Amino acid sequence: MDAFADSGELYTIRNQFYTNQHHKVRSYSLNQFSPENQLKALEYQIRSIIALEDDASSVIDDGKARFPGNEGLFQLLSAWNDLKSFGTDDSTYFDDVKTATYELQAVLTTLYVVKLDKDIDQAITFLTSYIDNTNTLNKYNEIEPFLILIQLHLVKGNFAAANKIFVNFANFPDSSRDNIIYQVMESWIEAIKGESDNINRSYSLYDELLSSDFDDDPQGKFKLLNVLFVLTIQLKHYPEAQELLLQIKALNQKPNADFIANQITFDYLVNGGANVDGLLNELKSLDITHPLVVDLEEKTTVFNDIVAKYQVEA
Amino acid sequence: MKMLTKFESKSSRAKGVAFHPKRPWVLVSLHSSTIQLWDYRMGTLIDRFEDHVGPVRCVDFHPTQPLFVSGGDDYSIKVWSLNTRKCIFTLNGHLDYIRTVSFHHDLPWIISCSDDQTIRIWNWQNRQEIACLTGHNHYVMSAQFHPTEDLIVSASLDQTVRVWDISGLRKKHSAPTSSMRSFEDQLQRQQLPQQDIFGNVNAIVKYVLEGHDKGVNFASFHPTLPLIVSAGDDRVVKLWRMSDTKAWEVDTCRGHTGNVLSAVFHPHEDLILSVSDDKTIRVWDLNKRVPIKQFRRESDRFWLIASHPTINLFAACHDSGVMVFKLERERPAHTISQNKLLYVNAEKQVQSYDIQRNENSLPMLSLKKIGKTWSFMRTMSYNQSDNSILVTHGEGDNSNYALISLPKHVTGAIEPTDVRQGEGNFACFITRNRFISFIKSSKTLHVKDMNNNITKTIQLDSSVTDVLYGGPGRVLLVKSHSITNYDVQQRKELSELSVNNVKYVSWSNDGQYLALLSKHTITIANKDLELITSMHETIRIKSAAWDDSGVLLYSTLNHIKYTLLNGDNGIIKTLENTLYITKIVQRQVYCLNRSGEVEVITIDPTEYRFKKSLVNKNFNEVLRIIKNSNLVGQNIIAYLQKKGYPEVALQFVQDPETRFELALECSNLQVALEQAKILNNNTIWEKLGDEALNQGNFEVVEFVYQQLHLFDKLSFLYTYKGDKERLSKMSTIAEHRGDYSALVQNTLYNNDIKKRCEVYIQGGMLPLAYVLAKSNGLVELAKQILEEAGVEEKDVQLPEIGEVVPLPEPLAEPIGNWPLKESSLSFFENALLNGQVENLSIEEDKAVEQFEDASASIADFNDEDEVFEDDAGAWDLDDDLDIPEDEAPVIDTAFPAAPTAEGEIGYWLRNVKTAGGYAAAGAFDQAASLLNKQLGLVNFEPLRKNFFEVYSSSKLYLPGIDDLPPMKNYIRQDNDEDNPSKFKPFVPGYDKLEERLAVGFKHFNANNLEDAIAQFRDIIYSIVLLTVEDDEQEAKCRDVLTLCREYILGLSIELARRALDPDDIQRNLELAAYFTKAELQNPHKLNALQVAMTQAFKHKNFASASYFADEILKLSPSGPRAERAQKVKTRADTIASDAVDINFDPYAEFDICAATYTPIFRGEPSVTEELVGAKYKPEYRGTLCKITGITQVGAQASGLRIIG
């Protein structure tokens, strides 16, 4: 029986991992899972601990002892943990990965390439080559690389490429699509595709997820509300967006650059941009490389040129 | 098909039954001689009629009059009054048992049939038998009129059904035939059997229907078609058809195993219902003549079946009473998704109603082929992400669901293509890609994906009887005495609530509350199934929905009612026909009726909003409602009293008596006193006196005692108040009234010994008077008494008299009202006292003024005495300006090639046409080039903010995986557009123009002229980058641009004037005059005129002052401003000349140069600026426009184009 199916053991933990319920993922005891699923559960747990910005080394060490013969996996997780905990990867593990041999390695290495090398194109090439070289069966079961690939294309504003990958899923077996990862990527495609029906469908996923218990995972709720905030603005439902804004602020999470960027847009739409300067400064101090900051700088240069070009004596 | 029993009576054998046409009543005639009248909705016996001797076999209500008729084995027909509940008269004539009796639908006739083998027709108005139809040669078991035509159908044990034509009878009784009959006519009539002694033909047998093998017990007409159904002892139901000339047997319905006693057509559906002594009711398909459904009673034979004339109800008589039932549910399956109501209409088609637009769609999908022909769609669930519906249909073990995709574009009721079906008594979506189906027989809950594959199976407890929707990922498990919230994913019971026989659930819009509906109970709980309130309804509850504010509206069979979370409830509307509430938006209640149609009902929510505000202590809202609504009635007053707000109730009441009671209740003596004065009634005064005494308000007490002439009480009141003065007055009054007892009492109170002695003397009680005087040291008086009595002092023996006992001295000042603790006024009293209510409006405050009605409050501005007076100095008009000959600098205006882009931005760049569109798409170069060409725009710096605003307003960042940058997302102009070649960016701003103008006017009014100019410029800048939808919007933008130009120009002139050297009187007067030429809104223009008038007058330019005064009077003919103008005018006209010569001709047409603020008279050369159309003297060509600050004067330009 497929452990990820509705009735399978890993169904819930996977859903929780991909919906940022990391505290929940972390709180499982491995003994709750059958021996054959424990390693996968541990993998989610370690990734969750790292996502929560905690040090996962001791859990990784325990895992190594408990699941001998998986050194490669633990080495990877260890490198990822180091990277997230110390900001650098002393072991040069990721730099040494030229081609990925298994899913998680492909996923984490791609993230590394984007984060450290800031090279999205290289990341896309790397991931595409992994996917192309994966045999079909694995491809059907391991769809996280597709999720990342789609996001990378959408980061670059290349909807056509993202949509092509997504549309191709129609050729996959139903079981591949019956997966939280697929639903998430579907929601992105729908949102960015636009049109009320699509945006509403995308919205409905997050709205539905919101009904889960996020008491222990405010960071997960923060993320969900942020997505809903974007979709609500996209639908031009401003009073509802305002309501979401208050809800998000009430969660008192650490500042988030995307949230600030979207607040800037929202402020233009409802306040005529009265608070934009403050928000922009906040965004710059938080993440000077945020796409909005970069974009606005580019546009400022263009605009300066325009001013100079047309200037006449008063 | 389901048979739903609505009512059952328990009695002896019931033989006849009839529905009242309007009220929820049935008449039941019993074999025991009684007739019963039941309210089948309430289940109560209303009355009993006993006048017949022996069994009563038949009854019928009159269709319009308060009458009914009965016939029994005593051979008599009785007509009864429903008003007096008595038998009015008896019709005798039949010679054996009466089998059926009924009224004609419009003539005053009754038809009866009997074992005496006749059918008789009676006129109940003149109580005469008007026809006796013979022909049957055995008992006539039933006879009835045709519902529209002049026909009768009868059934007899002679094995025939007969159809009779009674048009002759109608002719005879509707108008007397005075004309001579033709010979042929008379001859023909003589041949006919059914004629009276005058040769009139009453009725002729039209058809004799033979086919039954045994006696026929019943025959009836179809309500609209030429069909007859008959029931016989041969155990069959036969269907007959007739034409104008013949009648024939169509088919036979076989299945009953006993004598069939009665059969009728369904009034609306193609069905036949029959009853038999085999203890079954059977339903047959009229078209296919096959059985559809049967209902069996264990030990009762059925005798008769009757249908309600209008609604879906039937009544069947059996051995132990009657049962009233309906066939099939009438609640149209429906579901709400956002603002869309999806429902199944009467034709079994799916339709959608747009609640926002109040528009019904065409039918979009036919469900006729889903399930069996007569299976009813019971529930519907909608999946937005998949645009599909899930319906359940059928009953019991034959219950199924169907999952069907809806068409994207509605073109009519198409046949569904991709139907995924399965077994299930209930099914609904629980997440966007999962639904559940519940199979009652095995108590199994299946979780299925959209391909109809089972992904999970859950075995439920055997006590689960039904399942309802429980929010995302959850279901409610219904047991007979409880309900459980069940998490399907975790297979976990989350919470439980004890509640009986829940049938439906309605979740509040925010998912926080749910209303559980049973037949007669509504239970409200929160989402954790904690009980909030529960209430009982005598009339069956049909539906419920929550409004946005969390009030539950529900419908019963005949009402729409509301309930608050605290259980307070009331009726909102009485319904003629039952409705199912689906959604409430403000005052609109969106319902479905039993014909599967949407009905939108407008309700008055004031009462429940008021109560809710009161319960939530939202007193501002309460006050608003008090002020703005017509909320009255005893109900609301009683409610307020009950809730402890008598002071609020006071505001509603005019009736003095109620006001008095309420005032007492809230201890408001002042109001109570006012009302008591109006009522002036002893009981009222007494109540007021008691309350005033309780409160220690002696003034009111005194007033009340005075009103009631309670002198003794008054005296006592003054005594304990220590009010000597009034007490002595009371003595005087008592004396005046001759009330000695009272007088003595008063002398006791004020210790007036002398007076008391006098009273005793007057009363002849000399010994007492003497003793009193003596013992109090009034020696002289004692002596006089003795003299009067004619006795000596020695004759009187007195005990030893001690010292005079002094009475306690009252306080120096009489005491006043009791010092009560100052009570704080309630919120309402405060509000009502300080008049706050007056300022409350139920309308939302308008955030901005419409610029059309620019505020008339210009107090800050028009105080010209202070603001405008200190102008002086000289202004040196430089006539020798160097006029530059240069042309405007040549700018490379070749339109830059649009950058190529992918995705959304690519679409935008291909589709946009306006500068705003280009800016939003990030193509700043294109936008700038376009603006330069269209408007001669050269100074872009002021537009920096606008460019970035337009650009940023359509960009969003969708967060994805945490470690990756966000995805670019976009806001489109129209989210309903699905054609990529029309995708355009959203460019905001048009909607805010008026708001922004209002800000400009506000600055104007506040005399912040620089700010006003900046605001109007800002509006110009935003219009430059707008994208609007149509010509109308573009025209409006042009108007706004012109308006902004005029204000900037006018205000700039005024600012220039204020900056002048005070000695420059001529320029001062000129600028003041030019300011009046700006096309401002009238209230603002008045300011300009007033400045000009004041300045002119001040500087002795009386002719000009008179002109400006005239202009003011034209715009504002009355008020203080007009008075002042009038005064100036009168004064100025006496001199009528100007002391200072200025360059201003009020009667000439001219523009004002926006650079020099001098006139450009008609015909003089000028150059124009393109964006706002500002005029300049030619020498300003090529310079930057002073009005806009961004465009070049006189530049070649194609004009503003902002339609996107």
Automatic annotation (TrEMBL), chain A:
InterPro entries the record matches: Coatomer_esu, TPR-like_helical_dom_sf
Keywords: Cytoplasm, Cytoplasmic vesicle, ER-Golgi transport, Golgi apparatus, Membrane, Protein transport, Transport
Keyword Zinc: no
Main location: membrane
Biological process according to GO: endoplasmic reticulum to Golgi vesicle-mediated transport; intra-Golgi vesicle-mediated transport; protein transport; retrograde vesicle-mediated transport, Golgi to endoplasmic reticulum
GO molecular function: structural molecule activity
Compartments where found: Cytoplasmic vesicle, COPI-coated vesicle membrane; Golgi apparatus membrane
One GO CC term, this protein: COPI vesicle coat
Membrane-topology annotation of the record: Peripheral membrane protein
Family: Belongs to the COPE family.
Function: The coatomer is a cytosolic protein complex that binds to dilysine motifs and reversibly associates with Golgi non-clathrin-coated vesicles, which further mediate biosynthetic protein transport from the ER, via the Golgi up to the trans Golgi network. The coatomer complex is required for budding from Golgi membranes, and is essential for the retrograde Golgi-to-ER transport of dilysine-tagged proteins.
Protein name per its UniProtKB record: Coatomer subunit epsilon
Organism: Scheffersomyces stipitis (strain ATCC 58785 / CBS 6054 / NBRC 10063 / NRRL Y-11545)
Organism lineage string: Eukaryota, Fungi, Dikarya, Ascomycota, Saccharomycotina
TrEMBL record, chain B:
Residues covered by the Coatomer alpha subunit C-terminal domain: 852-1203
GO cellular component: COPI vesicle coat; Golgi membrane
Keyword annotations of the record: Cytoplasm, ER-Golgi transport, Golgi apparatus, Membrane, Protein transport, Repeat, Transport, WD repeat
Keyword Repeat (UniProt): yes
Main location as per UniProt: cytoplasm
UniProt-recorded Gene Ontology molecular function terms: structural molecule activity; ubiquitin binding
Gene Ontology biological-process entries: endoplasmic reticulum to Golgi vesicle-mediated transport; intra-Golgi vesicle-mediated transport; intracellular mRNA localization; intracellular protein transport; retrograde vesicle-mediated transport, Golgi to endoplasmic reticulum
Domain COPA/B second beta-propeller per the UniProt entry, residue ranges: 347-593
Membrane topology: Peripheral membrane protein
Listed CDD domains: Coatomer_WDAD_alpha, WD40
Domain of life: Eukaryota
WD repeat segments: 49-90, 91-132, 133-174, 209-250, 253-294
Intracellular or extracellular location(s): Cytoplasm; Golgi apparatus membrane
A Pfam family this chain is assigned to: COPI_C
InterPro entries documented for this protein: Beta-prop_COPA/B_2nd (IPR006692), Coatomer_alpha_WD-assoc_reg (IPR047312), Coatomer_asu (IPR016391), Coatomer_asu_C (IPR010714), Coatomer_complex_subunit (IPR050844), TPR_COPA_B (IPR056176), WD40/YVTN_repeat-like_dom_sf (IPR015943), WD40_PAC1 (IPR020472)
Domain COPA/B TPR: 621-775
Keyword Iron-sulfur tagged: no
Oligomer status and interactors: Oligomeric complex that consists of at least the alpha, beta, beta', gamma, delta, epsilon and zeta subunits.
Biological role stated in the UniProt entry: The coatomer is a cytosolic protein complex that binds to dilysine motifs and reversibly associates with Golgi non-clathrin-coated vesicles, which further mediate biosynthetic protein transport from the ER, via the Golgi up to the trans Golgi network.
Protein name: Coatomer subunit alpha
Organism listed in the record: Scheffersomyces stipitis (strain ATCC 58785 / CBS 6054 / NBRC 10063 / NRRL Y-11545)
